[in-house]
Amino acid sequence: MTKKASLERSSAHSPPQVSGPAAAALISAVLGCFLMMVFHHLGDTSKPVAEFLWKIGSWIPGSETVNTSSGEIDSYYGKETILLVSWLVSWWGLHQFWKDKQIPFSWIFWSFSLLVAATVMAWHPLFPYLKIM
Amino acid sequence: MDQIPDSSNKTIGEANFPRPLETAKLSAYGLSILVVGVLLLLPLVNLLHPSPWQRSLGFVHGIVSMLAVMLISYVGHLAFPLLRGVQTILHKAQELALAASVFAFIAVMTGNAAYARYRDPINGARAFFKENSPLVHWVYAESHEFMVLFTVPLGVAVSWILWRYEHGIFTSENRPVLAATSIALMAMMLYGIVGLVTGISMAKIHAL
């Protein structure tokens, strides 16, 4: 191994001195959760969005079933796909931009408000357009 | 009681009897292990259920979810000493965060498997809830379906940060990173426990 490669390898494995990589990891996780909940509500209020979600979730086994003793998963797998894709893509993108940067703690802190919003969006009574029988 | 005086003025009976502290420690450890062991046996009750889906899908999902929440709770509690800068627990936190993330993912997969049966329009649990207890569907089920999913990205993010930053997370420059990671760990614990409680609540009212 050349000296340059050895230095590069050791710097790649030394802990980061900036918050950028951690911010990318945390904010992308929060963003994924938030976007999933946004699409959950969009899917419940719009048929085209629901069909889109069903289509993009069809790669997960069990999305469509002919078994008469079980129901259709509907658009749920599509919402999981939204979570997975938005989380991983945003993580990759943010990491590329922020890997050598110091990100203010306030950015990470306020991104947790998206997590709070995602949590609130999982509780039905706050969204009266969903019917209660 | 035999009274053979010795230099400490104790009887033979008192000399051979364990000290209160040892008795207390043995009792505390033993009882804790027994109680946790019994609690872990709870998902086995699914094997006695008349529904074949509850005996298969419900049992597997129950076991995996219970293990996932145990790991999530264990590592979630490590967030507090981590936040205070206790470096000795870092390796335990790294390994547990990774294990918790893996088990959370497996719990989600097994939950997906059970979800199709849950949604059976004729005699599935969802149809029963909508007919008889709509709040369970609209509040418990909806929140369960989504809040448990939050544990996976949070767990993976925390695991990655702990492994990547290693002891560097305890430096003064990375103090905000440590704080944010600890908060994320606590959030993961919250979602894991809420997920378990809502899931068990639903199964209590109607099984698969």
Provide structural commentary.
Chain A is mostly helical and 133 residues long. Chain A has one domain. Chain A contains five helices and no strands. In chain A, helix 2 runs antiparallel to helix 4 and helix 3 crosses helix 4. The radius of gyration of chain A is 20 Å and the shape is elongated. Chain B has nine helices and no strands. Chain B has 208 residues and is an all-alpha fold.
Radius of gyration of chain A: 20 Å
> Which range does the strand content of chain B fall in?
under 5%
- pLDDT averaged over residues of chain B: 89
Low-confidence stretches of chain A: 6-11
Number of domains of chain B: 2
The helix content of chain A, as a percent range, equals 55-70%
Element order of chain B: H for helix, E for strand? HHHHHHHHH
- Largest interface: pair, residues per side: A-B, 50 and 50 residues
Radius of gyration of chain B: 23 Å
Distance between the termini of chain A: 69 Å
Determine the mean pLDDT of chain A: 82
Would you count the extended β strands of chain A for me?
A: 0
The largest sheet of chain A, given as strand count, sense and whether it forms a barrel, is: none
Structural class of chain A: mainly alpha
Oligomer: heterodimer
Number of strands of chain B: 0
